[in-house]
Design brief:
It contains 23 helices and two strands. By secondary structure, it is mainly alpha-helical. α4 (about 65-85) packs antiparallel against α16 (about 330-360) and α22 (about 470-495) runs antiparallel to α23.
């Protein structure tokens, strides 16, 4: 049974409360799944259990889930190999030579994370494992490293070539943006070029990434993050006073070279870049699509899976030929990679099952979207869409799920509010289009950044070796200013966009950045003032 009432919010509230109070993410998700199934089954236990089995089988047996899980375990094995051969230590030594302080080590983490823009999963998994030794040297708490990774990984939505492109273009196309008049589009335009023009309007990741650099360069520290940094500085405990989290990683028994890092990670990135257009039928590879179209038709999970497998095979051969490892060590490396990623994989799969209940059985996202976007002024539409996307992403823990929910609701609503009588309309005649699309993507990323059931959150905490709940609590105080600043930016856009397109864009970005910086400084001042009393 599909619900469309306030009852749909109960499972999400339960997960949020339990995750933050019990600090047990998987248990919280399982309780959320059970409560969602009971509500969806009209409070009948047997049908609820049957629905849990049905949704779980859909997720666990789905081909994308299988490809994704294999990718996680293989990337874990690649990381174990890079550590075992000394590649991680080699790249760490190079960075250490150029890093004379905690600030420079944090800056290096941001730079490495930014360079892995091709995929947020790859970014989150790789940066933490590579940078841990370096950040440990300067007593940077693991939760700080996880925060830097988690926020910078959102750069993926700003990159014209990434694993997100196919999904984003597909969503724009299915929502009514197309050059094919046979599809009866609402907006006559190429979805890819609409996306390109939308990038400057995706305010949240721009403001958040700039604010994260500001936090590092100005040494801003307050709230739970301050306590983690204080404990790390005073006694060297990088886990906020808790015990170390071990992932049974292989250790290097010999000094490695930079090639031991570049070959596995570099080949993985290159294979992903080549694999995306190949799987999408790019005509250079014998397909029928243009370069842009190939990304729209690309099979992201398959590419990530096979790119990681080929990269692992190539890297293993390279390591064996150079006598960095023996053949009999391979099973141990694979086991290490599986152990490293096992709990994160379980958390992600549970989050996906829970998300499916919210999306298909309870219609939580649609309910919230209609509730918030019911009756609004056209000038407030970018702000309200941002808030709607944010709340939905926070609730369901999925940026992609949020975008898939909001986009087909927001575009027809925009057409209606602008009193457009004839469709399709061109983007030039629908000036609110880009701010509204930017608001959808920005809100989805902002909510995902704060959600305790976000897959990227699990991967950032796993790779950095931080407790997931500590990451959720600590980054809240740092992310909130950027969210408030982004809301102010979209409010500005809504009222200025009709007067001056470029002035509105410039004003919203500058205002957003200044508000975020000011709030960070103010919160730091108030926190330390309170401590002195």
């Amino acid at each position: 049974m599909e619900y469309n009432t306030w009852l749909t919010l109960i499972p999400t509230a339960l997960v949020l409360i339990l995750a933050l109070t019990t600090r047990k993410i998987i248990t919280s998700l399982l309780i959320g799944i059970l409560s969602a199934a009971i509500i969806a089954s009209n409070f009948s236990v047997i049908p609820a259990l049957k629905q849990i089995l049905f949704r779980s089988s859909q997720v666990f047996l789905d081909s994308d889930t299988i490809y994704f899980s294999v990718m996680l375990f293989v990337v874990g094995t690649i990381i174990s190999l890079v550590i075992r051969t000394g590649g991680a230590q080699a790249i760490g030594n190079i960075i250490i030579k150029k890093s004379a302080s905690k600030k420079s080590a944090e800056t290096a983490s941001l730079m490495l994370s930014s360079s892995l823009f091709i995929d947020d999963y790859l970014n989150s998994l790789t940066t933490g494992y590579v940078m841990r030794n370096l950040t440990d040297t300067f007593k940077i708490p693991r939760v700080k490293l996880a925060f830097l990774i988690g926020t910078t990984s959102s750069i993926v939505v700003l990159a014209p070539i990434s694993s997100w492109i196919g999904f984003l273009i597909g969503q724009l196309s299915s929502a009514g943006i197309s050059l094919n008049l046979a599809n009866k589009p609402l907006i006559y335009a190429d979805p890819f070029f609409v996306y390109l023009k939308t990038i400057p309007f995706i305010l949240y990741p721009i403001i958040m990434i700039i604010s994260t650099w500001f936090i590092v360069r100005k040494k801003i520290s307050f709230g739970p993050m301050y306590h983690h940094e204080k404990i790390a500085h005073e006694n060297g405990n990088l886990f906020g006073g808790k015990e170390d989290i071990s992932h049974n990683l292989q250790t290097a028994t010999q000094s490695g070279s930079i090639s031991d890092f570049i070959l596995p990670i570099g080949s993985l990135i290159i294979l992903i870049i080549l694999g995306m257009p190949y799987s999408g039928g790019y005509h250079v590879f014998g397909g029928e699509h243009s370069f842009v179209e190939s990304f729209q038709h690309a099979k992201s999970f398959i590419v990530l899976c096979f790119a990681s497998l080929f990269s692992l095979i190539l890297s293993l051969i390279f390591a064996i030929v150079r006598r960095k490892i023996e053949l009999n060590e391979i099973p141990k490396l694979i086991l290490s990679g599986i152990q490293m990623m096992f709990m994160s994989t379980i958390m992600i799969l549970c989050a996906w099952v829970f998300g499916d209940f919210l999306k298909y059985d309870l219609n939580t996202g649609t309910y919230l979207a209609n509730l918030i976007l019911g009756t609004i002024s056209i000038n407030l539409m970018p702000l309200m869409i941002f808030l709607s996307s944010f709340i939905i992403a926070l609730s369901i823990g999925s940026s992609w799920g949020t975008i898939a929910i909001i986009t087909p609701i927001a575009l027809p609503m925009l057409i209606t509010l602008t009193n457009t009588q004839i469709t399709p309309i061109t983007p030039e005649n629908l000036i609110m289009l880009l701010p509204c699309l930017g608001a959808i993507f920005a809100g989805a990323l902002a909510g995902n950044n704060l959600s305790p059931i976000s897959d990227v959150t699990f991967m950032a905490s796993t790779s950095s070796g931080a407790y997931t709940v500590d990451l959720i609590q600590a980054r809240f105080y740092y992310v909130l200013p950027a969210i408030i600043a982004t809301a102010a930016g979209f409010l500005t856009l809504g009222f200025l966009i009709n007067k001056s397109f470029y002035l509105a864009l410039f004003s919203s970005l500058v205002l957003g950045i200044l508000i975020s910086w000011s709030l960070l400084l103010l919160l730091q001042y108030l926190f330390h003032k309170k401590r002195k009393k």
